[in-house]
Amino acid sequence: MKKAVIIGLLLILFVNIGGKASSSVIIPEDAIRFRIIANSNQKKDQETKLAVKEALSEVINPILLHGKTKGQVKTMLEENQSLMETLVSKKLEEEGDMQSFQVEYGMHYFPEKEYQGVTYQEGDYESLVVKLGKGEGDNFWCVLFPPLCLLEGEKTESEKVEYTSLIEEIIESILK
């Protein structure tokens, strides 16, 4: 009987507090975001965006490995901006795509995004933004600090983010 009462109360709490289909994530104020905006949504422009992401991983991955604070990551990104510009230029040339581009570090607007059932708030964020051509296509984005993305490759099914509920865990432990 005691278990039934506890489970009932937890279920009521779960429905009233945590039973929403998606949750909202507020990115920390000390976050540094990253975004590569494709020229357009044409297949070639989207492929170019991903090729640029891979090229920039040569610079960004070591920064994520060695930067322990926001200040360190920011400094390393700023110090390597010209190298990143060179890598983007070289990659565009390799792709036979001589479009213009910009690599900027600073405050940039990010629209609200929903990813795997989680909503990321819109707003102005300190960020590294690479704009390819007109910058009118879909974009790649992630959070560099604290590091919430990996630049090594495309996601696979096994790399999906899984969000758990403390209430569900409590119910499961009681039922065992």
How many domains in all?
A: 1
What fraction of the residues are assigned to beta strands by DSSP? 15-25%
Q: How would you spell out the order of helices and strands?
A: HEEHHHEEEEEH
Counted beta strands: 7
From the N-terminal CA to the C-terminal CA, the straight-line distance is 15 Å
The residue ranges in which pLDDT falls below 50 over 5 or more consecutive positions are: 2-21, 152-166
How many helix segments? 5
Please give the share of residues in helix: 40-55%
What's the overall average pLDDT, rounded? Answer: 79
Derived structural class: alpha/beta
Summarize the biggest pleated sheet: 4 strands, mixed
What does this structure look like?
The protein has one domain. 43% of the residues lie in helices and 24% in strands. The chain contains five helices and seven strands, in the order αββαααβββββα. A four-stranded mixed β-sheet has the order 3-6-2-7. Strands 1-5-4 form a three-stranded mixed β-sheet, with no helix packed on it. The two termini are 15 Å apart.
Task: Describe this structure in a few short sentences.
By secondary structure, the protein is α/β, with parallel strands linked by helices. It has helices spanning 2-18, 43-66, 70-79, 81-94, 166-175; strands spanning 23-25, 32-37, 101-110, 113-115, 118-120, 123-132, 139-145. Helix content is 43%, strand content 24%.
Task: Summarize the SSE layout with pairings.
Blueprint: H1 2-18, E1 23-25, E2 32-37, H2 43-66, H3 70-79, H4 81-94, E3 101-110, E4 113-115, E5 118-120, E6 123-132, E7 139-145, H5 166-175
Parallel strand pairs: 1-5, 2-6
Antiparallel strand pairs: 2-7, 3-6, 4-5
